[in-house]
Amino acid sequence: MTRAVPGQDPEEGPEPWRPGLPISFRSPATGEEAPSWPLFATDLGRALGASGISAVGRSILRAAPAGDGHPVLVIPGLTAGDRSTRVLRQVLRHRGYRAHGWHLGRNLGPTPQVVRGVPARVAELAERYGRTVSIVGWSLGGLYARDAARRRPDAVRGVITLGSPVRLTHPVQTRAAGLYLAVASRHVPTTDLPPPEAALPPLPVPCTSVFSPWDGIVAWRACLEPPGEQAESVAVLGSHFGLGMHPAALWVVADRLALAEGRWRPFSPPPALRWLYPTPAPPNATVEAPSTGPRPATAAG
Fold first, then answer.
1. CB atoms < 10 A from the CB of 95, how many?
2. Which of 14, 61, 99, 264 could be 89's S-S partner, Cβ–Cβ 3.0 to 4.6 Å?
3. Is residue 239 in some structural domain?
4. What is the CATH number of the domain that holds 185?
5. Residue 57 domain-assigned?
6. Within 10 A of 71 (CB to CB), how many other CB atoms are there?
């Protein structure tokens, strides 16, 4: 079982926000702060810088666990499409997986096409290969991945999310809230959406939430998966826009996908790479100053 952030109790907390409620539905509580402006302003630039790191990191990733050929569905974040996940899918194919994009165009939120299309894509891949499907979701895509796993646990092998607000309780915890609301007219009625993830029970399949204390878009505390028998959160160095290209995150994805079905265990990084996996600060500390010592990286904070 993974370790919880000191003072973080997933069983207690304020009422979570859900689509349909105004952003100002209540004042943010302690721990519901937005990513700092410096992190937000530099996130894209740090991601572009990490693209060079990912090129170097490909040599490192050749040592990552090899896959067993099962299908993997990769879902992009808000306003992004399959092009944004190309590097991630290429890495997974090189490790031996049948990695696929979602084929639903740009992610503009829970439109009717998305609400119908993601479960249908999971079912299609499961039927095509005769095997359960792993789902990797980036940011908002991770919430679709979790919903698909709840709908079709028989077809889903596991879920990995990258910078996804799996425990978002207030819209200020994501700098993308305004963009999400700007395209809300395209979404299905709020009554057709599932409850917020923060209000739902644990997933019925193994899940790993990969997050960064330096995420400038989604507050890292909103990404923490409550620890469980097959649930964990793993902190990495990186930016929100760079998570799908950063070697630390890609290693976690490859490592988690390589686990045999029914034999889940918490993530443990190779000793030589532990510096890439910080232990986040406790909830009452500043986000900008997590510990970066070479300690075990697996942490539900």
1. 21
2. 99
3. yes
4. 3.40.50.1820
5. yes
6. 21
Which two three-digit tokens encode residue 111?
A: 């439109």
Q: What confidence tens digit (pLDDT) does each residue in 223-262 have?
A: 999 889 999 999 998 899 999 988 899 999 999 999 999 9
The whole-number pLDDT of residue 53 equals 56
Alpha carbons 207 and 202: distance in angstroms, whole number: 9
Q: How far apart are CA 21 and CA 15, in angstroms?
A: 12
Q: Which residues span the domain enclosing 141?
A: 37-276
218 close to 165: Cβ distance less than 8 angstroms? yes
Phi, psi of 4 (to 5 degrees): -90, 155
C-alpha–C-alpha distance, residues 216 and 146, integer Å: 23
Count how many residues are written for the chain.
301
Rounded CA gap, 217 and 47, in Å? 12
Q: What is the CA radius of gyration of the chain?
A: 18
Asked whether residue 281 is assigned to any structural domain, the reply reads no
Q: Is 11 exposed, middle or buried (0-12, 13-18, 19+ CB in 10 A)?
A: exposed
163: alpha, beta or left? (left if phi > 0; alpha if psi -120 to 50): left
- Residue 248: partners with Cβ closer than 8 Å, 6 or more residues away: 236, 237, 238, 273, 276, 277
Say how many domains are in the chain: 1
Instruction: Look up residue 233 and give its two tokens.
Output: 């959160």
Phi, psi values for residue 207, rounded to 5°: -145, 145
In whole angstroms, what is the distance from residue 72 CA to residue 119 CA? 14
Counting as low any pLDDT under 50, the low residues of the chain are 1-10, 281-301
Whether 291 maps to a domain, the answer reads no
Cβ 43 vs Cβ 220: under 8 Å: no
